[in-house]
């Protein structure tokens, strides 16, 4: 994978100076981009190794050899999605940081074509994709823990606030409402969910003993 | 499957005094029980009209005529699940009511075989099942709104607290943690999620203006 492209899903122009690994990386990017495009067009049920290979302009034996099956392709898409330098918002306020995070989740879950929902749906059917999806979420939540640590440092939250359950509480309503309930009609969902988790945390709901902090 | 098996999915013994509609209702019950049993054994991917008909001891033309396809079968299972007299807990405390509700969700999402997760997974693939799943959730949340109204009446929550977003905030972490993250290791999940939502609500996070009530 090279670094010149503007968009995340654009196929790169051929590199005039191939380096070791350059062609393999380019093939991988082409194949993974094709997986995302096929998922967006046809969903998991329409995803086949043949269609991916055709779209990527790669021989299908190459795809079978390297990724084996659709589950392997999806797992690699998810692993590649985590190999970035994403960092959680840092606004100086817990509620604002969580709202920014939720805005990103909201955008991902409501984007057209619905690639992220298709990946999540696929994780219900491919154990390999499910593992990769959980690795990705785990990594994302780990990168968000600093949001909670900073809020504790600023005195917004009581010491000993558990970061992970607070982050899950802040973000879970988006997955539930948008993905499971299929309802994207509430314009306040991202902020309200962030605010509710922040207030609950300030009131001590995520400390080990559950006693209020400054609430 | 024959009808002598114990457990909640047992087909009824033949009624010695058939009434009008009794046979149709019995056939429906047998077929829907067979859907649940097949889902538990094989998941959505293994679900076929033929297998359901065979397990229910019903001719497959009957199943095709009445339910048409797997989506129709799943939708009817979900509609039948909602046709009960379930009522939300009424303990006199918002946190306890929500914890009781979450305990039920926790049990449903972690039961073996995983029938409820299989139904939810199916709703990602069958629009008809998705519609029925949403009808069921909508009905359940509607029945839970009284929990919030009672808490407002007792002075636990500020007037104008919106019931539905509070209920979603209380329950969503269970779906996220158990179903999407696939992690059932936290014994405090049900209570902590209930408590966090209750505290956020007491602090005014679910009123229209978001101002604190008595927090």
TrEMBL record, chains A, B:
Domain HTH tetR-type span(s) in chain numbering: 25-85
Q: Which UniProt keywords apply?
A: DNA-binding, Transcription, Transcription regulation
Q: Gene3D superfamilies, alphabetically?
A: Homeodomain-like, Tetracycline Repressor, domain 2
- Write down a Pfam family by its short name: TetR_C_11
Q: Which residues form a coiled coil?
A: none
UniProt feature, compositional bias: Low complexity: 1-10
Its Gene Ontology molecular function terms? DNA-binding transcription factor activity; transcription cis-regulatory region binding
DNA-binding region location: 48-67
- Please give the residue ranges the record annotates as the region Disordered: 1-26
Family annotation (PANTHER family): HTH-TYPE TRANSCRIPTIONAL REGULATOR RUTR (PTHR30055), TETR-FAMILY TRANSCRIPTIONAL REGULATOR (PTHR30055:SF148)
Quote the protein name from its UniProt record: TetR family transcriptional regulator
Origin organism of this chain?
Answer: Streptomyces gougerotii
Q: What is the lineage of its organism?
A: Bacteria, Bacillati, Actinomycetota, Actinomycetes, Kitasatosporales
